[in-house]
Amino acid sequence: MYPIETLQSKIQQAFRDLILPDRPAELYDPIRYTLDLGGKRLRPFLVLASCDMFGGKIEDAVHPALGIELFHNFTLLHDDLMDQAPLRRGKETVYKKWNSNIAILAGDTIFALANREILKTNIEAVQGISDLFNITAIEVCEGQQLDMNFELRKEVTLPEYIEMIRLKTAVLLAASLKIGAMIAGASEEKSKAIYDFGISTGIGFQIMDDLLDVYGTEEKFGKKPGGDILAAKKTYLYLKALQLSDRNDAARLVSVYESGELPAVEKIETVRALFNRVQIEDITRNEIDTYWKNAVRIIHSLKLPENQILPLMEYCSKLMERDY
Amino acid sequence: MYPIETLQSKIQQAFRDLILPDRPAELYDPIRYTLDLGGKRLRPFLVLASCDMFGGKIEDAVHPALGIELFHNFTLLHDDLMDQAPLRRGKETVYKKWNSNIAILAGDTIFALANREILKTNIEAVQGISDLFNITAIEVCEGQQLDMNFELRKEVTLPEYIEMIRLKTAVLLAASLKIGAMIAGASEEKSKAIYDFGISTGIGFQIMDDLLDVYGTEEKFGKKPGGDILAAKKTYLYLKALQLSDRNDAARLVSVYESGELPAVEKIETVRALFNRVQIEDITRNEIDTYWKNAVRIIHSLKLPENQILPLMEYCSKLMERDY
Fold it and tell me: CB B27 to CB A111 under 8 A?
């Protein structure tokens, strides 16, 4: 098994090896800018770790891994435009720095570049992984559409929310893992299992993100907490708190959350106090734990030697702040 | 060889067989609306006709042909948003009927759907045609970027214009033909030749479109002529007329073309009069003829029996209003 750092350096190398044309500069400058913003490179890591875990050749997985990360960057680029988000990783978003048309077209181009990278693997895997990749792309679009719908809806149920984050976040993590398995020639049963591991981890991971926005520190979260509250995002914590609060507190929570009356700090504090009344932090940690335990159960069902699952599990358990 | 009508009905059937989910309706309603707008279905015809001409199985080409047309519809959807075009085939464009975010996301989804259809062919062809498809997608984006750049630039040379329409229009026609050839297992040399045929035909076809905007009838052109003049589009006719006019007429042409002072009918008439002074209609028809003759030369270089090239040539020569 390759250690985590080796897999990560292979991803960095793949990014350095990616040659983009210079012109038209109006198209390729924003693409370079987007790819240089960096990030955890979580998804390509999952492709490589899964391929390695199932005994595949890493060389066959490096380009598809890069393709997955390109796709992820494409979705961020278009999402930031749709959400009118001014900043991404502390820097101006493409539509802000350039304009909307550039953001649309640079995104489209990155998606096509991603598809090209996906194809660069062994011939037996190509058709299957490229199809899974594009099915997943469609699901991610559906998830973004549901997310936009929820902004305009008064009521969203918890199962609806879980379905939205499954589509918007979890399926891409799951597909990354399954693509690694398919490149390694893993059986359908094993490929499906690692996909399900990714779904459970991905949903847990997104709920963790919701949690850190309320109870995390800027250092740990990577951005200023409270953003979801200020944007009145219907997160797991908000929807669960509404369910658990008594009628008065629930009404108060809706009115504080939805209105823009209170100053930022006060709004965050008030919402946090209402969350605390129903022990939302513990409840959310339990929920994350349930998703993570399910993921651990799935990976153990593969009955692979412990050392074979080590890099993937070390990485994921660190992400989830959990043991396995 | 299948007759033109048979190939066309196979394309219609493929569209009818395309099953889209119902939900989220906000995503799939605009996609259905876009695909129902219709059109000539020129590009999928080229895929099928080329595959048939090179002795391939039409069944292997139907899905990739559909994929190419889906991609074409995706580019129209995003282009209409970028160009802020209110109408497409006499109906409201998606961003007008719904909104910009829906247009972005519906477009992204159609591109992913297109990629899935491209993969549905014989395993030997998949990697090659999917890569060509995405290379072409990138080139079409580059062409759209150049087109947007030209809107803001004062001077554009004729070679720059030809390069822009090569990327924005011709490469997709050429790739359609080459994909048909690749599915049929044609040699690289033959696949390249049919690609070059498509480039020459495609450039001629776009210059014809420029011509019909000035000298065509609404019946023939399918839309009201004069649109390019009113939008001050730097077309082949405009750039060539500038090159051929004396200093005074050229200055006059620029000032009339660029300013929004004159009423529509008068502007169109004045520009047409300036075009007439340098015989732009004849010159443009000659230019189209040169591209078409080059295409005919290429197709004959394949040395295929006359009956084998008949459906493709009948269709293309009709498009170009030329014999072969």
Answer: no
Please check whether residue A133 is in contact with residue A71, taking contact to mean a CB–CB distance below 8 angstroms. yes
| B41 and B167, same domain (yes or no) | yes
| CA–CA dist A233, B68 (Å, integer) | 38
A68 contacts A179 by C-beta, under 8 angstroms? yes
Residues B213 and B155 in one domain: no
Partner A contacted by B149 (CB < 8 A): yes
Token pair listed for A25: 């500069």
Does the pLDDT at position B67 exceed 90?
Answer: yes
Kind and range of the H or E element at B104? Answer: helix B100-118
Structure tokens at B33: 């609306």
In the structure encoding, which two tokens stand for residue A56, read together?
Answer: 């595949």
A102 Cα to chain B: minimum distance (Å): 8
Tokens 């973004």 belong to which residue? A144
Domain that residue A174 falls in? 1-186
Are B204 and B182 contained in the same domain? no
Instruction: Using the predicted structure, report yes or no on whether residue A224 has a pLDDT greater than 90.
Output: no
Residue B230 resides in a domain: yes
d(Cα B49, Cα B312) in Å, to the nearest integer? Answer: 6
Whether residue A142 lies within 8 A of chain B, CB to CB, comes out as: yes
Residues B42 and B127 in one domain: yes
The answer to whether residues A210 and A293 belong to one domain is: yes
**Binary contact (B113, A138; C-beta < 8 A):** yes
pLDDT band for position A307 (50/70/90)? very high
Q: Are B307 and B232 contained in the same domain?
A: yes
Q: Decide if pLDDT at A219 tops 80.
A: no
The per-residue DSSP string of A191-257 comes to HHHHHHHHHHHHHHHHHHHHHHHHH--HHHHSS-TTHHHHTT---HHHHHHHHHS-HHHHHHHHHHH
Is B284 a domain residue? yes
In this structure, the answer to whether residues B70 and B175 fall within a common structural domain is yes
- Mean pLDDT score, A136-154: 96
Please tell me if residue A294 touches chain B, with a CB cutoff of 8 Å.
Answer: no
Nearest residue of chain B to residue A144 (CA atoms): B105
Distant-in-sequence, close-in-space partners of B184: CB < 8 Å, separation ≥ 6? B50, B51, B52, B53, B54, B55, B56, B57, B61
Structural domains of chain B, count: 2
**By the 8 A CB rule, do B55 and B184 touch?**
yes
Structural domain ending residue among the three candidates A170, A186, A202: A186
DSSP tag of A279:
T
Whether residues B112 and A137 touch (CB distance < 8 A) is answered with yes
Partner-chain contact B105 A141, CB within 8 Å? yes
The least confident of A115-129, A249-263, B107-121 is: A249-263
Most A CBs within 10 A among B95, B119, B156, hence the mutation to make, goes to B119
> What is the four-CA torsion angle of B251, B255, B257, B261, rounded to 10 degrees?
-160
Residues B219 and B133 placed together within one structural domain of the fold: no
Residue B324 has pLDDT above 80, yes or no: no
In a domain, B167, yes or no: yes
Q: Does A44 touch chain B (CB under 8 A)?
A: no
User: Which pLDDT score, from 0 to 100, does residue B260 have?
Assistant: 80
Helices of type H across A86-186 = 94-97, 100-118, 123-152, 158-165, 171-183
CATH of the domain at B306: 1.10.600.10
B192 in a domain, yes or no?
A: no
Counting one residue from chain A and one from chain B, the pairs whose CB atoms sit within 8 A come to: 112
